[in-house]
TrEMBL record:
<dbReference type="GO" id="GO:0030313">
    <property type="term" value="C:cell envelope"/>
</dbReference>
<protein>
    <submittedName>
        <fullName>Putative heparinase superfamily protein</fullName>
    </submittedName>
</protein>
<dbReference type="InterPro" id="IPR008929">
    <property type="entry name" value="Chondroitin_lyas"/>
</dbReference>
<dbReference type="Pfam" id="PF07940">
    <property type="entry name" value="Hepar_II_III_C"/>
</dbReference>
<dbReference type="InterPro" id="IPR012480">
    <property type="entry name" value="Hepar_II_III_C"/>
</dbReference>
<dbReference type="GO" id="GO:0016829">
    <property type="term" value="F:lyase activity"/>
</dbReference>
<feature type="domain" description="Heparinase II/III-like C-terminal">
    <location>
        <begin position="300"/>
        <end position="557"/>
    </location>
</feature>
Amino acid sequence: MSDPNSLSARYTRAMHRLHARISTMARPATGFTSMPEPRTIGLFARGKQLVAGNFLFAGHLVSATDTSIWDIDIPDEVFAQELHGFAWMDDLAAVGDAVARDRAQLWLWRWIDRYGQGRGPGWTPDLTGRRLIRWISHALFLLRSRDSEQSEAFYRSLGQQTIFLSRRWQKTSPGLPRFEALTGLIYAGLALEGMAEHVAPACKALDKECRRQVDEQGGIPTRNPEELLEVFTLLTWAATALGEAGKPVSDAHEQAIARIAPTLRTLRHSDGSLARFHGGGRGMEGRLDSALAESSVKSRQADGLAMGYARLSAGRTSVVVDASPPPKGDSSINAHASTLAFELTSGRRPLIVNCGSGSGFGEDWRRAGRATPSHSTLSLDGLSSARLGEEGRGWREEHLVDGPKEVPIQMSQASDGLRFEGGHDGYLRTHGLTHARTLELTFDGRGMVGEDMLIALDDTAKRRFDRVMDAKTLQGIPYAMRFHLHPEADAELDMGGAAVSIALKSGEIWVFRHDGSVKMELEPSVFLEKGRLKPRATKQVVLSGVAMEYATRIRWSLSKAHETSVAIRDLNREELDLTH
């Protein structure tokens, strides 16, 4: 993404505005060819917050009772983009009562009056595609009890946005923004009278994007699981819409869906959420399973490897490991230095997590969330395994540089469980050390044994290690292994400080131990969750020590306490609270 203040970015925005205004002169749509059905899943709790005048977007909460969504104070550009994308319409539709419908109708027609002639920040192809999908999907909800004049304005605006999108979709960034733009154009072309001519070119462009962006293993360049889910959801929506209209779905389109579905199943934790890596969150509740069901693809990657991640699963336990070099170039602007980090979920309860993306909490949190110490892995000498480089093309989105280049891994079956072995060279250039990690999950899912090593593998690496040791006057190279805990996991030191007991709300008790070669502490941590007002306080288990030799080994284990039942009925369910 480029600097929004650069000459090229300003020119692109000016051309967007020009084409938006030109599109008002085109022949408008006059109605739907068939009445569309809603595709999207909204959050009832978030919809109730909107009705109450609490606007929570991009990590900012603006409370303004009895105020139009277009009259509130806008904290930043990302907040404005979320407003103009209209994804919040899903949440109002989830409430679905008369009050929610009145708000939805009022705010939509206010947008048409205020911004419909090409004004405001909403005239970008990706936001327009997102907006078209919501307006069309919720048309029954929106048009109820509207008079002919309002209906005509609605259809006129839909037609205008479709024409604009047909002329400007090429100006979106490759990846998710372009998938949004093209899916919106396909939706509009199929649903609106007089817009059918745009379907074939949009489908052709979507095919090209599928071939470019979705690799043979069903992954995307950013390696962001939540972004992959968004792409997959758009592709399934487009395929369903084409099928319902009696239009063929191309081989490239169907094959992309067939490749992505097994990858998403591999990245799905036992609680139904996605593994949180490289800027992605857990995914909106229900969206992953809904999209997988709509795709009708049932398989999972047979070897447990997908998009550079490795999965171990047994019993009620799932483990997902970042087992590949981080993304590169423009694909790395939101990537994290998380190589060999893992997350572990037991049943419906996340236990070991990564801190997550801090992008919704400001630039400092965004940078902190990308660093290695924000992940459940080892960091050496206070450094991350990859570094943030120069600002990407002059803006705040920095590329990830100097990361691991070689990440050999092996998945196998041990005598009593499943084994992951991996290593990375992210500290080889600076310290001469390779980080190797082994994880073994028992067949019943009740325990995992881990081993982490720092090794100087050859003479060149040993000489580099010796130079660093000399610079530190032979005091050793400090390292820290972190195991971040989910906020709902209650942890305390046990056995005189030799172990940590971790209680989950399901009633399970897990015990963390180590081999005694390191110092163990229970320290504060944070859980960075999209859509919340502020980071959530939590804890982390930290094993710290110093590397004095060419090989340093740390062994640890995480297992259910013996008194924890094999079969637990986890019936506790929490109300969604987005403001804490």
